[in-house]
Amino acid sequence: MYVIGILFGVINGGSRFLWGWLMDRFGFKVLMFFITGIEILISSTFYFSAANPVLYIASVLLVSACIGGHFAILSPVFNKIFGLERGPEMYGVTGLFIGFASICGPLLTNFILNKTEDFLVVFLIGCGLCIVKFVVLIFFDENDKYVYEENVDSLLTNNESNPIQKEGADKNEEREEE
Q1: Is the dihedral of CA 169, 170, 174, 177 positive or negative?
Q2: CA–CA separation, 137 and 20 (whole Å)
Q3: Confidence of residue 156 (pLDDT cuts 50, 70, 90)
Q4: Contacts of 20 (CB under 8 A, 6+ apart)
Q5: Does the pLDDT at position 173 exceed 80?
Q6: What's 162's DSSP letter?
Q7: Is the CB of residue 59 less than 8 Å from the CB of residue 49?
Q8: How far apart are the C-alpha atoms of 134 and 118, rounded to whole Å?
């Protein structure tokens, strides 16, 4: 079991170089479709791979490589979408929620197993979520920019058309008159 854990970490970290190179070559969306396709394949067959130790270990290591792929390709895309200032912040927030999901995942798995007593259901739910991710990815455009700075700046600048800013300016004028 320790060997699997060590291999998991080595594959996860080592594969990031490959995923980065592949992203430079094929782009985010193509690569994310590929990773999601692997995840759908593994989550739909993982239950059955437990009967064959070699196939099971290969599946676990492939999942590890997919996790490494997410971490390798999401950071540059966040920078592209949110800009160089906000991109790392948003990536950090995503990391925070990944940690939260790491806590909730085993709890949810336990809940499902208590209700169904079947691991197949857990993997099929995972497969369904991967299919949802695949569909969302169809509509995702990495070239859309969410310009956070402009949205915040419009609230902070003296803009007469902004009702929040205008209300604040009116209150400041009342204070100055007193």
Answers
A1: positive
A2: 19
A3: very low
A4: 72, 73
A5: no
A6: -
A7: yes
A8: 25
DSSP 53: H
Question: Among 111, 123, 7, which residue's Cα sits nearest to residue 65?
Answer: 7
Query: Hey, what are 118's tokens?
Result: 């079947």
DSSP 25-47: HH-HHHHHHHHHHHHHHHHHHHH
Hey, what domains does the chain have and what are their CATH numbers? Answer: 2-145 (1.20.1250.20), 147-178 (no CATH)
Model confidence pLDDT, tens digit, residues 78-109: 888 888 888 888 899 998 998 999 899 999 99
Left if phi > 0, otherwise alpha if psi is -120 to 50, otherwise beta: which for 105?
Answer: alpha
Burial class, 78, CB count within 10 angstroms (exposed 0-12 / middle 13-18 / buried 19+):
buried
The residue count of the chain comes to: 178
174: its two tokens: 């009342």
Q: What is the pLDDT of residues 9-19, one digit of tens each?
A: 999 999 999 99
As a whole-number percent, the residues of the chain with pLDDT over 70 amount to 80
Going by C-alpha positions, the residue among 65, 1, 58 that lies closest to residue 31 is 65
Q: Where are the beta strands (DSSP E) in 7-121?
A: none
Closest by Cα among 15, 4, 21 to 68: 15
Write the DSSP symbol of residue 52. Answer: S
- The model's pTM is 0.74
